[in-house]
Amino acid sequence: MKTNLYNYILELADNCLIGGQRLGELCGHGPSLETDIACTNISLDLFGQTRSYFQYAADIKGGDATEDSIAFLRYEREYKNVLLVEQPNRDFAYTIARQYLFDVFHLLLLEKLQFSQDMTLSAIAKKSIKEVSYHVRFSGDWVKRLGDGTEESHEKMQAAIDGLWTYTNELFEVTEEAKALAEQGIGVDVSKLKETYYQNVTSLLQEATLTVPESKYFQKGGKAGIHTEHMGYLLADMQYMQRAYPNMNW
Amino acid sequence: MEKNWPLWEIFVRSKNGLEHRHFGSLHAADAEMALENARDVYTRRSEGVSIWVVESKNITASNPENNGELFEPAQDKIYRHPTFYTLPDEIKHM
Its domain of life (chain B) (predicted)? Predict the structure, then answer.
């Protein structure tokens, strides 16, 4: 089995899976019908991308692995998503900030991944770019609206950006498998996206009349499977059906 | 500031060549948000190729109370329908 490639696919896909699960929690609970359905649409886009990645990963792993077993039957330490995407929906500003801080990175990543030497990864990236371009537009617009809105919305948006900023640097951490695959032209060296990322984010935050946090202390660990305390609850919720009724289907 | 966002009417063209049809209404703070919301609420099952949004307050509607004077006079003027001509059999597709 191509272990590096398998692990790298999980690293890409788990961000979509866990971020999608967080957005999916808003189904029926969004602040308005319109934003509720927008967030769950984005969630479905991310699940669609996750499925493509996991189907590929299941092929590589072989045996009785399926997209479902990879999604639902791993332990917490085996998930490789960044800490950012597992952060809870404290309020709508948090949801939007988390989404925006991830979307900008996600688009930069896919724009490079589409040129991967691996045809499947390249195809998934090409298809996803259109979806993710809309995600950035949606979340970015909302950061501007809330940041440059009322006094209350500004405060909440700033609090959310301040609260999540500490998770941004991990996006650019290069794992061993990503490094090896980047050298073969299959993976993306995410450390090279960092400068553009912070430029893009800074310019939008300024437009939104928000202050760019100056904190230099950053959290990490997600890519190595060491998650925040929120992850266990998320997985309990997400995995419940498959754990309670193994192999169940709709 | 008003607590509720204004209401918008959404028109979607489902295919090129067809006219925009009224799909429904939704709330949004401005036209740009109305377009994004319409995209998410009404075209998520690929129903459309083009969207128009119009703030509902800009639509002037006829008053149902005036239906009598507006529409009833046409009801007894059946001669306005071209149903009194006998068409020769040779003419098809009329």
Answer: Bacteria
* A219 inside 8 A of chain B by CB: no
Structural domains of chain B sorted by starting position, each given as residue range(s) with its CATH number in brackets: 7-59+66-80 (3.10.20.520)
Residue in A with minimal Cα distance to B25? A34
CA distance A96 to chain B (A): 15
For chain A, what is the domain count? 1
Q: Give the CATH number, domain containing residue A44.
A: 1.20.1260.10
pLDDT value for B88? 84
Interface confidence, given as ipTM, is 0.74
Given an 8 Å threshold on Cβ–Cβ distance, is A38 in contact with B33? no
CA A136/CA A104 separation, integer angstroms: 6
- pLDDT, one tens digit per residue, over A67-122 is 999 999 999 999 999 999 999 999 999 999 999 999 999 999 999 999 999 999 99
Q: Which residues of A touch B37 (CB under 8 A)?
A: 34-35, 38
Question: CB A199: neighbour CB atoms within 10 A?
Answer: 11
Beta carbons of A31 and A98 less than 8 angstroms apart = no
- A79 to chain B, minimum CA–CA distance in Å? 30
Encoded tokens for B8: 């918008």
| Short-list A173, A171, A159, CA closest to A213 | A159
In a domain, A119, yes or no: yes
Using a CB-CB distance cutoff of 8 angstroms, which residues of chain B are in contact with residue A33? 26-27, 41
CB proximity under 8 Å: A 116-145 to B: 137-138, 141, 145
Asked if residue B1 has pLDDT above 60, the reply is no
How far does chain B reach from its first CA to its final CA, in angstroms?
57
Range A219-225 average pLDDT: 96
Q: From residue A158, give the alpha-carbon distance in Å to each of A154, A207, B11.
A: 6, 13, 36
CB-CB: which of B27, B36, B44 is closest to A32? B27
- Which range marks the domain in which residue A121 is found? 3-244
pLDDT band for A247, please (50, 70, 90 cuts): confident
The predicted model scores a pTM of 0.88
